[in-house]
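Bumping with the actual sequence this time:
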Amino acid sequence: MIIQRFTLLFMLAFACLSHSMVQAGLYSGVNLNANQLGRGFDSQLSALRNHCVMGEIVTWNNTEADISYAGLKSHERYLEETYGRVKGGVNLVLFAGSVSASLSTRVTENSRTSASSIKLLYHATDRSIENRKLSPYGAAVLTQDEIAIDELCGSEFIHHLKLGLEISVTTKLHFRSIEDYQRWVTKVKVRFLFYSKTKTKTKEWLELTENAVYSIEINAKGGMTDRLQAILDENTIFCVTSNIDACIDTTSRLFEYLFSEMGYIVDIRDAPKQVISFSTTPYLISGHLELALPPNAEVNQYRFQDERIRTRLYANQQMKEALYAFAQVEADEAIRVELLARVSLIEENIELLDQAAALCRTSTDWLICERAVDEALYGQTKIEY
């Protein structure tokens, strides 16, 4: 029964991918709450600004569920398909900090890790702001010069929100070396990691995964129910590949709960909904010509700082995830403690980078952002994988 369900999910994946690709005007709802309609947004920097317009909030229910398969993706492709609208590269790290980097590394693969991820999206409510006019704040900033108006209100405003719940079930194989991973991807053509007990332990599979760790993870944006958390707490989610049956049992229990008529769908019925995505409208299109000013000319400097932070964040997140997985199956207590100590150092590295990103999100002086990024990168501790 579970295997048949996996097959159905695999076939649904590719139909759903084409649906997600057309949402080119959407941003992820990371760091956003349901009271942000009318808030300014800098489309070049992907940064929130002040509430410069106001209007009537229109709400309507729109019950809809979607399933998509996110395996075998790079971080860049995942971000493009999930977060939408790429204008020369959306600065998601500046906007979302380590949240976006952490999520994308958890559900995609890299040079040492193979991944399969199935995402369930429950779209419950839409909200938009209509009959818009300048807010008292928006009217007040018109007395300032063009640069100040652009910095305070941005180039667009948040016009529409989608509220709901989002959950991803991700399984991974973490390899100890790039060479081990490369042998795996060369030999195994279909890397769908929701295994069955009867089709996993071939001789070739065991040889190729000899030094790998299998893991199961749930990433939820709202919707983490008590029963779902109990499955994770009470069952095995890290396995050495020579003893993987317990992890296969866990994935079976997860999918049985998630797709049962009396399971997950019942538990989330009254759960608080989160902002899943939002769309923006330029002031020029909305008719607020007094706010429709040229974007900040220094945007390329921010993009450069974003790229510097992004590269290190991804590297740290990937290493943290793998070292933690190896620590969970390590029998030698001394080695386990050493692995977890390295994880703690990586978390300190991430915190430094996240602080720099937070400062860049709020600063309108790119030199301040540059100095913060310099200090964060200089303060990074080198970690051995």
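The tokens above came from a reply further down the thread. The two ends are 39 Å apart (CA to CA).
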